[in-house]
Amino acid sequence: MRKLINDPADVVTDALRGLAAAHPSLRVDPENRTIVRTDTAGSGKVALVSGGGSGHEPLHGGFVGYGMLDAAAPGEVFTSPVPDQILAATTAVHGGAGVLHVVKNYTGDVLNFRMAAELAEDEDIEVATVVVNDDVAVEDSTFTAGRRGTGATLFVEKIAGARAEEGADLAAVAEVAREVNERSRSFGVALSPCTVPAAGRPTFELGENEMELGIGIHGEPGRERATIRPAAEIVDVALTAIDADMPLAGEELLVLVNGMGGTPLIEQYIAFAAVSDWLAGHGATIGRSLVGPYVTSLEMAGCMVSVCRLTPELARLWDAPVETPALRWGR
Amino acid sequence: MSGGPARPETLDAAMITAWIRHTAELVAADAERLTRLDAAIGDGDHGLNLDRGFTAAVAALPGEPDPPGRTLITAGRALVSKTGGASGPLYGTALRRAGKAFGDATEVDAALLGRALRAAVDGVQELGQAAEGDKTMVDALAPAAAAYETALAAGGDLPSCVRAAAEAAGKGAEATVPMTARKGRASYLGARSAGHLDPGAASTVLILRALADVVGEAAG
Predict the structure, then answer these.
(1) Cis before residue A218, ω within 30 degrees of 0?
(2) A3: phi > 0 → left, psi -120 to 50 → alpha, else beta; which?
(3) Which residues of A are designated catalytic?
(4) Where in the numbering of this chain does the DhaL domain appear (chain B) (predicted)?
(5) Is the pLDDT reported for residue B191 higher than 80?
(6) In what helix (H) or strand (E) does residue A279 lie, and over which residues does it extend?
(7) How many contacts (CB atoms, under 8 Å) link A and B?
(8) Mutate to test the interface with B, among A104, A144, A186 (most CBs of B within 10 A)
(9) What are the angstrom distances between the C-alpha of B213 and each of A190, A207, B19, B113, B217?
(10) Do A90 and A96 meet the contact criterion of CB atoms below 8 Å apart?
């Protein structure tokens, strides 16, 4: 296993120590495993808490700060955090106005956040929950656990975070979070698998000329294996799947081309060029955009395309100032 | 009954504690296999997570055995707070519900254990929203509870009921191989999940086998 680690058992702890050392604006509690914003204590604003497995950096700890999350609870690699941890994060940032939990739709995340919300309510903390489920690769029916939460998690956290920063109440923050989720879709492609440090072997194997279409963010195989194609054709598969689910023609879009952790920026920009061409050819416009590794799967190669149909209000909230380790503008 | 070693008619606090410890041993011994099963259709961490969870459950056990119900609730709470993933809340809930069903009893007889198993199945189904045939731990756990009840109704004693449950869990787990997953992370693979043993069902087998082993040893 060729990884820059000390011990597979200490991966999350050591990474948290580094995060704390690099970003004095965050308070990292290694015991409870929480990452908390230090500048909002007693502000009385609605607090946003998210979390999930580690290995998706900068999600979620890298999005803790002004205009976005108040706290994050990182679990073990690709494993949801436990209720105690989520409760510790919730309690640490509750300022009296309630807490929004942003949860990706994975069974473990949903169950652990639900248990944590119950524990928080026992302590008279009002909790609202938004479950992000933007991934069109999963058939959404009563026969699955539902669509996964992937790239749109960033959209939800940024826009709802901006709304909370303005002083909106919990119901209003939760409402805009759900609106962003409903207007967002994603599709991911893996060009290589990744290796969970504690397991020490790749999560799946790909032949020299193979790729996985319709992946999530946990190194799990996708819906279908295919022969590697040029970037423009891969983007066409992704956007065709998204467009079939949520027609894009005539829409102004927020677009994220997200690197999965092992793909260089030059290739992500090649993908973005293809996205731009595809959308222009299908009557949609790019209103706002973001390119980079924001919701990763360790060292997996490949990319995910996420889009959100903007409204003027959502665009305004996207543009609002943000100051976190991984996302920063306007301030 | 004449001749041979006495067969236990009840589980006491020491045996419940032994069950949790033995489950932790079986999970640790099988962690690699569980993780490999999970890598095929999930993200490959089930064995690692469950090993961490049951290690915590053993560490949480009291020095002097509490009543059986209290012990299971303590172990279940530890599983919830240390395991992560879906298996933590699900197995933690199973043990806590079983523990609540035991109430204050200091000796758990065959009928009470049957009610606790049923409570565990109900708790897991309620939380996970999975039914039999969804390719989850329910496919091992529900047949185990049903086989236990059948054996009990036929006049079986505690060891034979537990053995029936463990065997049914094993068969139930094997039956998940051809299924298409409809819950949990494996469901994202759709038809590609068929042909693989469900890791959650496989770990449920270990928990029931551990109970059968503990009861069997007590029977000599």
Answers:
(1) no
(2) beta
(3) 56, 218
(4) 14-213
(5) yes
(6) helix A265-281
(7) 105
(8) A144
(9) 44, 44, 8, 16, 6
(10) no
Q: H or E element: which one contains B101? A: helix B87-102
Nearest CB to B85; choose among A79, A137, A138: A79
- B216 strand-pairing partners: none
Give the Cα separation of A9 and A7 in Å (integer): 5
Contact B189, B181 (CB under 8 A): yes
Query: Which residues, other chains included, contact A148 with Cβ-Cβ below 8 Å and sequence gap of 6+?
Result: A104, A105, A106, A133, A134, A135, A137, A138, A216, A217, B188
Bridge partners (DSSP) listed for residue A304: A188, A258
Cβ-Cβ contacts under 8 Å, B182 against chain A: 143-145
- Residues B180-192, mean pLDDT to the nearest whole number: 86
Interface test with A, best of B82, B137, B188, B189 (most A CBs within 10 A): B188
The type of residue at A14 is D
State what percent of residues in chain A have pLDDT above 70.
Answer: 98
- Across the beta sheet with A127-132, what order do the strands follow? A26-29, A34-37, A71-77, A47-54, A99-104, A127-132
CB–CB contact A76 B187 (8 Å): no
Q: Which residues of A touch B86 (CB under 8 A)?
A: 80, 107-108, 111
What ipTM was reported for this prediction?
0.86
Rounded distance between C-alpha atoms, residue A127 and residue A144, angstroms:
26
Q: Residue B25 burial by CB count (10 A; 0-12/13-18/19+): exposed, middle or buried? A: middle
Spell out which residues of chain A touch residue B41, defining contact as CB-CB under 8 Å.
220
- Tell me: the pLDDT tens digits for B10-64? 999 999 999 999 999 999 999 999 998 998 888 778 998 999 999 999 999 988 8
Cβ separation A82–B84 shorter than 8 A = yes
Phi-psi sector, A51: left (phi>0), alpha (psi -120 to 50), beta: left
Q: What is the pTM of this model?
A: 0.92
- Supply the pLDDT for residue A228: 95
Q: What string of DSSP letters covers B152-199?
A: HHTT--HHHHHHHHHHHHHHHHHTTTTPPP-SSGGGGGGGGGTTS--H
Q: Look at A143 and B187 and tell me if their CB atoms are within 8 Å.
A: yes
Contacts of A199 in chain B (CB under 8 A): 35, 39, 44-45, 48
Q: What is the pLDDT of residues A79-121, one digit of tens each?
A: 999 999 999 999 999 999 999 999 999 999 999 999 999 999 9
Q: Does B137 touch chain A (CB under 8 A)?
A: no
Query: Cis before residue A58, ω within 30 degrees of 0?
Result: yes
| Contact B81/A at CB under 8 A | yes
Asked whether A118 and A87 are in contact (CB, 8 A), the reply is no
- Pairwise CA distance, residues A286 & A289, whole Å: 7
